[in-house]
Task: structure prediction
Amino acid sequence: MSVVSHVGRVSSLLVVPLLALGAQQPVLTEQNAGTSALFQAVSVSANDPDIVWISGHAGTWARSLNAGATWESHVMPGHDSLQFRDVHAIDANRAWLMAAGTGVKSGIFQTRDGGLSWAQVFANTDTAAFYDCMAFWDDTHGFAFSDAVNSRTPIAYTANGTDWSVFSVPALDGEGGFAASGGCAQTLPSGDAWISTGSAATPRVRHSTDRGRTWTDAILPLASGSGAGATAVAFRDARHGIAVGGVIGGTATGPRAARTIDGGRTWSVITEPSFTGAVYGVAYTTVRGKAVVVAVGPGGAAFSVNDGDTWTLLDSAAYWSVGFGRRGRGWLVGPKGRVVRLDWR
Result:
């Protein structure tokens, strides 16, 4: 097991209007995880905000136990061809990695010993399924969902983190998630869950209030059609949320962000994040009691202190995913092993 440790450096300092965040300013600190793999998802432990796990391509995952002062990066033995596009961390020892791909390329792996060993707890047996994202309500209850197969969305569910079973719900023709950032599924401890979709006649947000047993659907006013739609969704409470997306990998344009104030029943277009191209990831945090949302994509990163009415550019580097823990500290990850810590000072 190779362990790589590096000290981060401050890469940029942005000044925010003092009234916005009570004189708090965002500070981006580059950190070296010791790999050039594409990172697609990040998870900060809800139990300890210094513990961060990242997942990426070529069977790669990384972990820090000290808020990114040092990192260790690894390739899962025997699985270097997998693309780990989502990760969920409980603590220093317990985490899940979700591999995305058609058929057997999709699966979920669990560790209970900090990555010393991994067990595949879910193996996709549907040759047409392609799993996009996973999310957990607590330390044991979670789900993952796939692109539609025969106009039904497969959903894998677990009540203990180890045993998974699959059921399906109706879907639009061609509907699926975007396995871009691990952000196309979100949960709240209340039992709420939301998933964002696209590549169909209309993009949607699907909402469950009973831990995924039943779902209701709402149309999103975002770009629609093949390769377009909602890539990620984030809620700061049971009513207020933002969905982001656009046209993935294309030159066409369309609305890239929408907001709800009623738990996802209705959505309205909002100002787009202040960088070009599709938005891949989005996440909320709290800074001095103020809700702040950060959006990222290949065109950069931006934040808003007013639920998307206005945005401030954070960086023009490419990012795929963003995640936060307590205290407002977060991480942005992306291509070529890019890891950047975001603090408010």
